[in-house]
Design brief:
- The complex is a heterodimer.
- Chain A is mostly helical.
- Helix content of chain A is 74%, strand content 3%.
- Chain A contains eleven helices and two strands, in the order ααααββααααααα.
- Chain A has helices spanning 2-32, 39-57, 61-84, 93-116, 141-163, 165-175, 177-182, 187-212, 220-234, 239-260, 265-279; strands spanning 131-134, 137-140.
- In chain A, strand 1 and strand 2 (137-140) form a beta hairpin.
- The longest helix of chain A has 31 residues, at 2-32.
- Chain B contains ten helices and ten strands.
- Chain B has helices spanning 43-51, 73-79, 96-103, 110-123, 125-129, 140-152, 170-184, 197-203, 221-226, 228-234, and strands at 4-12, 18-27, 32-36, 58-63, 66-67, 81-84, 158-162, 189-193, 206-211, 214-220.
- In chain B, the strands form two sheets. Chain B has a six-stranded mixed sheet, sandwiched between helices.
- In chain B, helix 7 links the parallel strand 7 and strand 8 (189-193).
- In chain B, helix 3 (96-103) packs parallel to helix 6 (140-152).
- Chain B starts with a strand and ends in an 11-residue tail after the last helix.
- The model of chain B is unreliable at 238-245 (pLDDT under 50).
- The chains are: A mainly alpha, B alpha/beta.
- Chain A binds chain B through residues 91, 165, 168-169, 171-172, 175-176, 178-186, and chain B through 14, 51-53, 72-74, 77-78, 82-85, 89-94, 98, 101-103, 105-106, 150, 154.
């Protein structure tokens, strides 16, 4: 029992960070129908930025998360404006976003490998290896802080979408793009903002990831596969689904790792992906698509 | 000068042929119009072009003397022209209240939004009762009322309705037409596309008959309803007016 609670604690903490990583990905799909295979490479790139700031300037990764968000927001808006606006209205838009973001991922990975080489990196703030002890259980400080930041950012995103005018526009565009135009939403501008937010969330995730996991340029392929599994489970385009999917799979993965060993951890995500596609292809909170 | 002037407009979808093949007509302020015509005549396409959802390939649209055909949909709405499409275009996972709030997306005055929402709830009490319910869970008639109510939230000068009675039970459709009659009293200029041509024309002052992408005929609605040739060609009725043909 004690061990099960410990595994649950670790799974929930991990799930919080996964939820933040997946939220940006599902937002990009929900608003702009962009299947962003470059989302995880942005996370890795941001992890390198946090690593650089920590090693050279002594900036704490949690501070880097806050600093990276506005920078990555602007990067996201620039990427959307230069790359995706050109293909809007294309008959094969969704497929083209897959190819385009795949190409972006390869280019960014190559640049990261060129500048930082392919060796493993990680930032090591003191709290990354420290823990709080509560009775028989321990709560790793680094994971707790990362999860806390994730929850705060996700609550901020929820509040933004729920209570601000632009947030209403983003939600409207996610639910019905042409209806959003009809009520006066400038969907192009809204899409730029949403992609900027998606990239900003990836930026914050990268800073947190920089001390949670060792990373190297090609690591993003593993993460993007994992994130796609999370958002397919939750329902592509559903923020609630991304959060629930992340927590469910992170907890399940933690138990699998505990029982069967770390090598089986990633299997949990892919097995869940296969099962959900077989049983409920639209995911837990997604809408059924009829052709 | 007419409120809205459509001149030689040609439009179609993607690489396909022109659906509107040279449409021209004027819309006078405060008047209500019903557009009728067979399937494929271009009725819905015309509304989409005016609403800025489909760019015309040629021709011009002017509103209060200003060109409209280069504007985006949100800019057309800001100019005062609101469009309600056939499928209602609601936000299914937003509540009734949130959908109405979205209707006033371009309005910054919170008091005005509150007043208009109260007016809408007064006009459609069922929406007030279901204010906290997701729009996707409403019945077809309630969704149509919500679509109408949402359109009113922006206080439009011109309101274009595409097939407001489509798929509704006759009694519910009648409620919608009654609501439209009430809305006309607010001085809104109406452009209505309606398959139930007789009921649509009865609701409007002026009728426009479209066929093959151009305006074939226009006249006061009662004249169209009384014209045996038009009745036979476009209303699907025998000259004597009894029963479907």
């Amino acid at each position: 029992m004690t061990n099960a609670v410990q595994v649950l604690i670790l799974g929930l903490l991990l799930g919080g960070v996964y939820a933040l990583m997946a939220a940006g990905l599902t937002l990009a799909f929900g608003v702009m129908r962009i299947v962003n295979l470059a989302h995880a490479v942005v996370i890795v790139g941001s992890a390198y930025a946090a690593y650089f700031a920590f090693q050279n300037l002594g900036v704490d990764p949690l501070v880097s998360a806050a600093l990276l968000m506005p920078v990555m927001y602007l990067v996201g808006v620039a990427i959307y404006t230069t790359l995706f606006r050109r293909i809007e209205g294309s008959a094969r838009y969704v497929e083209m976003t897959v190819l385009l973001t795949f190409a972006v991922a390869i280019v960014v990975e190559g640049l990261l490998a060129f500048f930082f080489t392919g060796i493993f990196r990680t930032t090591d703030p003191t709290y990354a290896t420290d823990a709080f002890f509560v009775g028989d259980w321990f709560i790793p400080k680094g994971q707790l802080y990362a999860s806390g930041v994730s929850v705060a950012l996700l609550l901020g995103l929820w509040g933004f979408l729920r209570y601000t005018r632009i947030g209403y526009g983003v939600r409207a565009t996610m639910q019905n793009r042409s209806a959003a135009q009809i009520v006066g939403v400038n969907v192009r501008r809204t899409s730029s903002i949403a992609f900027g937010i998606s990239t900003a969330l990836a930026g914050a995730s990268g800073a947190l990831v920089s001390y949670l996991f060792p990373f190297f340029p090609a690591r993003h392929w593993q993460w993007v596969a994992l994130l796609l599994a999370l958002i397919v489970l939750g329902g592509m385009g559903s923020l609630k689904g991304a959060v629930v999917g992340a927590i469910v799979l992170a907890v399940a993965s933690s138990f699998v790792v505990d029982q069967a060993g770390p090598i089986w951890g990633p299997m949990t995500f892919y097995l869940a992906l296969f099962l959900i596609l077989l049983v409920r292809p639209q995911g837990l909170f997604g809408k059924e698509v009829t052709i | 000068m007419a409120l809205l002037e459509i001149r030689e407009v040609r439009a179609g979808y993607g690489p396909g042929p022109d659906i509107l093949t040279g449409m021209s007509f004027d819309v006078e302020a405060g008047r209500s119009y019903c557009i009728i015509g067979p399937n494929g005549a271009g009725k819905s396409t015309l509304l989409k072009v005016i609403a800025g959802l489909l760019k015309p390939r040629a021709g011009s649209i002017t509103y209060q003397g200003n060109r409209l055909d280069d504007l985006r949909a949100d800019q057309v709405l800001a100019a005062g022209i609101c469009y309600v499409p056939q499928d209602h275009a609601l936000f299914p996972e937003m509540t009734v209240r949130e959908n109405l709030t979205m209707g006033a997306y371009l309005e910054r005055d919170r008091n005005a939004i509150r007043e208009r929402m109260d007016r809408t709830f007064e006009m459609f009490p069922i929406l007030g009762e279901r204010a906290g319910q997701d729009a996707g869970t409403l019945s077809g008639g309630q969704q149509q009322m919500l679509a109408l109510g949402r359109a009113l939230m922006i206080d439009p000068e011109v309101l274009m309705l595409d097939e407001p009675s489509l798929g509704l039970a006759p009694a519910i459709a009648e409620q919608i037409f009654t609501s439209i009659d009430e809305l006309k009293a607010l001085g809104i200029t109406f452009i209505l596309v309606e398959q139930n041509a007789e009921r649509g024309l009865a609701c409007a002052e002026w009728g426009l008959v479209l066929d093959l992408g151009i305006l074939r005929f226009e006249a006061p609605s009662d004249e169209i309803l009384a014209d045996p040739r038009i009745r036979e060609l476009y209303l699907g009725r025998a000259v004597a007016g009894e029963g479907p043909k």
